[in-house]
Structures are given as structure tokens and as C-alpha cells.
Amino acid sequence: MPLNTVNNDGSLNNPSQIRANLQKVKSVGTDGIMIDVWWGICEQKSPQSYNFTAYQQLFTMCQQIGLKVEPVMSFHQCGTNIGDAAYIPLPNWVLQVGQWNPDIFYTDQNGHRDREYLSLGVDNVAIFPTSVPGKNRTAVDIYSDFMTAFRNTFSSFIQSGVIDVIEIGLGPAGEMRYPSYQLQNNLWSFPGIGAFQCYDKYMLNNLAMAAKNVGHPEWGTAGPNDAGYYNSMPYQTGFFSDNTYNNYASNYGQFFLNWYSGMLIQHGNSILQRARSIFGKNAKLAAKIAGIHWCQYNIDFEFTCMEMIDSQQPSNCACGPAELVALTRSTAWKYGLDYGGENALDIEGNTQANAQIVKQSSSSGKAISGFTYLRMSDSLLNSSYNFNVYAQLVNALHQLEMNTKSSNSNDTIHILKQLPKSFLFSFKN
């Protein structure tokens, strides 16, 4: 669904047109939609005061038309990523906390604050208000309260199966990652290495404790001092080069990288544990992964760049998106996780991208659990050519599902565990 499906004031944007669009995509076999449930809209005005009215209208439409819904618990800001056509900041009352305590936001070595997502350093720090004056809560409590309110509001849609999967946002753009590649203020451009985001006081305090615990307090004062900046290349830095002092492979480098990635994994674990407890053991939950970070709690693995072909990438960047998809897909399956994909960039009318998506959607007789098309737009729906190409992709993926099931019909017990219950083809906002 488009990013402006729900207005910033909490109302549904042009309901009659939305209904017509949903009916059109349903007519060519689309199974469902994906929609961000924005924290910045639904809990906008005051803590623990939720407004899901527009989403109730939208989900009811989908139920009437026969479409599944995959809501995304979106705890990030919209408007600073590729393709963002709307601006939805974090809730006002959160930004007010940030005015007197800017360390609630991720910070780089130059002191730049990224306000699109709360730093994981405040996951367990009770500095955010509740509806009760004088009583505070942690960031993880905030996410838990929001998910609980969503569950209570939409329990009938969950129980009836209209809500098929619930995706849990874990970072910027909803992905389990740091905001290392920042487009705002022209800080980063492809293929720069990005910047470490560990300079808010809460992250630095944790780093200092971790360094002290391994007997090297000198390692805990800051991140690497020779890791370059957003647009550096690895060979231009000491930290990411081979055979340099205190580089990534040194004892110090391994300590820092293990701490940095470990903090992110702990962040994901904390939120997903709460999500599983809130939505129950039978709910189908998903998390979007950026890079390779593994989660448990029976969570689906969602990955992007399904349409990308290695030969189309810049030759000087050592890009291998097709290999990355294959690696993450095989590893997710190895650990018993369902694997879902989506496109990273606009693919309207692109038959070559469609062919690559179909190719990447199965391996060794096994299909991925679903594909999310990014994204529904006027140029897709109003162009007969673009829409026909889209319809061909839907048909090809559904045919892939049928062929995969048919080719493995004799291997009943093993294959029944592996095959998806249904191939969910949905639209991303």
C-alpha cells in the first residue's frame, strides 16, 4: 500500500479509491497487502493513547474483498529512506523527550543524531512517560504496549485469519540494523561504508562496561578511531584494511564488532520475545533482516533485493546481491525459518526483474513463503503495460508454488514441513 494510505491525522486517505485499487489487484490474483501501522500516527499525541480507526476501516475492506493483511509494527520514522513519499515522524511526546535528552537517538562519531528510530541503548532505560504522571517506561515497554493495544483492537481479524502475518519492526526502515547509511543531509551515498552509530551516552556506557569486563577498559572509550566516515571505502580506512594495527581482525577489532553486533541481536531478541508473548505461540510473526542477523522465537525471515542481478551492479563495488539472497535463503531454511522476499527498488514494467524474482523464489524444489511487491502506485495501476507485467509476475509465482508442490508430492512428511502453507503475494506500502 502507498505510504500515504493513512494520513498523519489518523484518517484513511481517499477510502473509495483505496477500495477500487484493492479490488483491481485482487482481480489478478494478489493474495494480500502489507501495510505499515505507524507508531508516529497511532500513538501520536500522548503516551498510551492509541488511534487505530483508519486501520480498522482498511482491514475491513480487505476482509470484504478477500485479501489477507500483513501489518507491520513500524516504530521508525518515514521520510528518510529511498522511495519514501511521505513524512511521518516519531510521536510528538517522544521527540519532546529527545529535546532535553538527545542521547535517546543513535549518534555517530561527529555527533550527528539520527531521529528515525530510538537508540537500542535505551531499550531498558525507563525515561519515557506513560499515561500515569510520574511513571516512566523503557523503549521495549513502549513497543510492547503498542503491540498489546494492536492485538486487543484487531483480535477478531487475527483469529479469523484476515491478518495472516504480523511483521515486527526492529530498526530504521523497519529493519534489524543500525542507521549506518543515512541519506538525510546527504551524509551517505552508495557504495560508502557508512558509520558506526554507538556514540550516544547509553551505548558508550554499555561499551565501557563490556570493555572493562574483558580486562581492556581502554577499548571502551569510543568506537574505532580509524573507521572512516559514511562515504569512505574500506581500503581508505585502517580499521577495515588488512594487516593494520587494531583493525577488524585484531583482538580489539573482534571485541568491538562482537559487542556492536551483539547489542543489535540482543535488541531484536528483546522485542521479538515480547511480540511472541503478546501475540501467542500460534501467531505467524516476521522480521525484516538487513545483512545477516539471526533471530529465534519462530520468526519468519524477510529479505530484500530479490530482483537484483550481479552483472547489473557497479563493477568496482564487489556487489553480489544474488549470492546474498541465496545465502540468506539457504541459511534461513537450514535453521527451520520461513523465508520471504521483496524487491528493493522500483520494478514497474521490468520483465527482467520479474524473471530474477521468480528464479530466486525457489531452490532445490522448495519455494519461499511469499513475495511482497514494493509498491502499489498510480503509475502501476494506471498503466496497462505496467499492470500486465505485474499480473504476469503474480501468475508466475503462483505457478511456481503449484509446480513446487507437485514435484515434491511423493516426499510427504519431509516436504510438508518445508513447503509454505500458501504463497502469499502481497503489496508493500
UniProtKB/TrEMBL annotation:
It comes from Naegleria lovaniensis (Amoeba). This is Beta-amylase. One of its GO terms (molecular function) is beta-amylase activity. Gene3D superfamilies: Glycosidases. One of its GO terms (biological process) is polysaccharide catabolic process. Belongs to the glycosyl hydrolase 14 family. The keyword Hydrolase applies. It is an enzyme of class 3 (hydrolase). PANTHER family: BETA-AMYLASE 1, CHLOROPLASTIC, BETA-AMYLASE 3, CHLOROPLASTIC. It catalyses: Hydrolysis of (1->4)-alpha-D-glucosidic linkages in polysaccharides so as to remove successive maltose units from the non-reducing ends of the chains. Pfam families: Glyco_hydro_14. Its EC number is 3.2.1.2. The lineage of its organism: Eukaryota, Discoba, Heterolobosea, Tetramitia, Eutetramitia. Keywords: Carbohydrate metabolism, Glycosidase, Hydrolase, Polysaccharide degradation. The keyword Hydrolase applies.
